[in-house]
Amino acid sequence: MLTSKSPRVRAGLAAYGDRALLLGAAFSFLLASGTYSHVMAQDTEQAADDDTLTGTVDDVVVTGTRVQSRTVGESTSPITVIGGDELRATGKQNLRDALNELDTSFRNSAGFSGQTGIAVRRAALRGLSADQTLILVNGKRRHSTALIFTAGQTSVGASPVDLDLIPTSLVAHIEILRDGAAAQYGSDAIAGVINIILKENAEGGDANITLGRYLDSNNQKHGYGPTAQLSINQGFEIGDGGFFSLGGDIDIHGFTNVAGPAPRESPGGVDYNIYPGGGTDPRETSVTRYRQILGLPKGQTYNIGYNAELPVTFGDQAKLYSFSTFGHRYSQGWGTFRNPNSPQNVRAVYPDGFEPQFVVEEDDYQITAGLKGGAAGGLFWDLSTTFGQSRANVRNENSLNPSFGPASPRDLDNGWLISTEWTTNLDLSQELATGAFEKPLNVAGGFEFRYNRFQEKEGEYHSWADGGYENPDFPAGSQGHFPLPGSAGMAGFAPENAGNYDRNNVATYLDFDQNLTSDWNVSIAGRYESYSDFGETVSGKASSRYQIFDWIAARATVSNGFRAPSLQQQFYGSSLPAYGTDPVTGVPNQLRYTRYVPSTSSLGMLLGGEPLQPETSRNYSVGLILNPLEHLNVTLDLYQIDIDDRITSITLQASQIAPILAANGLETNQNVSYFTNAVNTRTRGLDIKADYVTDFDDYGVIKWSLQSTFNRHKVTGIADNPPELAGINLQQVTRNTIGNLTVANPKNVTALSAAWLIDDFTVNVRETRYSEVRGLNALDPARDEVVRPAFITDLSVGYNVTDQVTFTLGGNNIFNVKPDQLPEAAIWTSGGALLYGFPAVGPNYSFYSPYGVYGGFYYARLSLTW
């Protein structure tokens, strides 16, 4: 038994050694009616304390199992528990970034997201796509964002759950299941499941105030990302034995900027003049060349939520429960700076040029209500319904539609994307004494109905229309004589893009769990689903765990699963105007649209599009759980994930498809993109996790933690080109796409951390190593983006001013490590164009960097408890 002379350390050790069981069903209450709904109506006790000594093999979990009181160490699948205090101790402003710091298998998706992707960042498990990880809140499926990442690179086409809109103040702990679980939960659970368990306090509360910023900026426009955050939680007792836990967060942050100055010329001699007269304009020699803002957006996020439960006199131990979150976010990013001499600038409006601002404003909410309890004979039941919606308005501000000239509005509404999900569940479980084995058979089953809707609403007329304005600053036949239509840099949704689409699915499942002996557990699960759009799926899972000796156990799992194509992937549409040479007439500087169309639209099907099918997976894992020494816990898990029919996008150039378009009487000067099932992949990996606690007596206690994640991704198959495209030179899966699937995430992430408690001080230090990543260029290997291995150090020091007040100073990436600048070959094209199209050089960092490009972030936090 660990001991210490420090009262605070002894309290921490008591929480570590005698932790009350976690309540697997965290419940919420909506004013007078409440409901909770967890993974399967299993009741365990709430953790008594969430401090730095969490995440041991003795923590009770509810994710990936329908058996009550199963611990991390007893689980047949690898699972990690992260306490709420651990999340808040990272200094990060949201759950996504906090998890990125604390679990090496969870990574923020790499790559430049562009346009609406600036607002919603994505993350995933095991280097897979963000939409291949299922997110639960109190065991209930969380709805996804309405936005879609058409430029997401490592998550192209994804519309994942937005973790940033769940209040951290309301989170008790998070359970991360790193295994396929579609047989238990349905679509999306290919890489694993993240279950966010909410607080259940009937009294008391806490508050955290955090101020921080990045160390430096590379631009005279600054951009240090100053941040202010407030989070607060308060619990209330309701009824006889009920609770109402209320939490809210406010996050206000400024932009970051890593853009260097606009160059004077490219290596090929292309001039980058800012003013029309170039070198003859006296302003050219004195004007600041820091024109571009490139980095994290400026924004505000407001989240509020509750979790509540009220015992009722209905049945046996019945409980009415409810939980809900509401989030509002305003995000403002910047497009490419338009110089005064740009064809897309109207000098009468912006004589010194302009930089359009891309604004995404969202409202996001979800509410769950239900009733659960027991019945005669030991039957447990849980009936719940969950409604969630994401509403995103996209705008272009301080901008214009140059095709309307001076008459164009300066602020344009580009339209709306709205995603809705409504899920109703009935879950049942019971232990049956079969007599065949010493312990009873746990049987679980249930039914689910889910309704999804996606709406795309057209933008205002000036955001997408062609006004036909002739720019007097440009001669006939040149770019700019007729400026491009639509909002600058991000045209609005046109009437042909607008639509309202829905689907529904029904599901039923069965789950059996049996201890064959005191050392050997076996579980089997199966799930059937029927979707109104693509048809039926059947998923299965078999798992086993065997206690070889007291200090070592083995576990293994085999399963299959799927991810249903989202409605966004099936029906999203947009058009982006540009200039191009007409592939038929050869006339240059002609208006050319790049269109995203549904694969089942008339244009999509003409060019080989087909109805999207679900991605299907096969998961295999085998692992060891070791406790060779007291207080030393080690897990090693090998896994393989085969995914067929992965959805990616195909882009067809005008020069390739002009004959097909001409033969069908369509405009020939257009590029066309759509989503398609095109790639099979295989992921193999190893997860290593170890934690150990040492007692240094008068010098405190340290909890050590080691995590290391290894994985390798490869493409195992590529679909044949559609017969409609036979005879054209088409590589539908490009080198860039293959790279994004295989080498854009680090093959290894290793983190060693220590939490040192001594008297009234807490010191947390974490060292993380990221292996090399690469962004492969579609055509030219010389333009590949390479991010070399790096070590990142995080440090925080907290001091307990009183029992209720703690002050913390900390930093993430305290040594301000940034990736190497890209070589000129990766920055410039042969035609003199710049990386990502931004008029800025030196520095030029790769956005594939797994630790970001913004350097060190430093913060101070005041924490209060009562």
Report on the structure:
It is found in: Cell outer membrane. Residues 318-814 form the TonB-dependent receptor-like beta-barrel domain. Keywords: Cell outer membrane, Membrane, Receptor, TonB box, Transmembrane, Transmembrane beta strand, Transport. It is a single chain. This protein is mostly beta strands. It has one domain: Beta Barrel (Maltoporin, Chain A), CATH 2.40.170.20. The chain is built from eleven helices and 37 strands. The strands form six sheets. The protein has a 22-stranded antiparallel beta barrel. The longest helix has 11 residues, at 7-17. The protein starts with 6 loop residues before the first helix and ends with a strand. The model is unreliable at 1-55 (pLDDT under 50).
Annotated CATH topology: Maltoporin, Chain A
Global mean pLDDT: 89
Tally of discrete structural domains: 1
Roughly how many Å apart are the termini?
30 Å
Structural category: mainly beta
Q: Tell me, what is the CATH class?
A: Mainly Beta
Radius of gyration: 28 Å
Q: Please give the CATH architecture.
A: Beta Barrel
Strand portion, in percent?
35-45%
Helical fraction equals: under 10%
Please give the largest β-sheet.
Answer: 22 strands, antiparallel, barrel
Shape: globular
Low-confidence stretches: 1-55
How many alpha or pi helices?
Answer: 11
Number of strands: 37
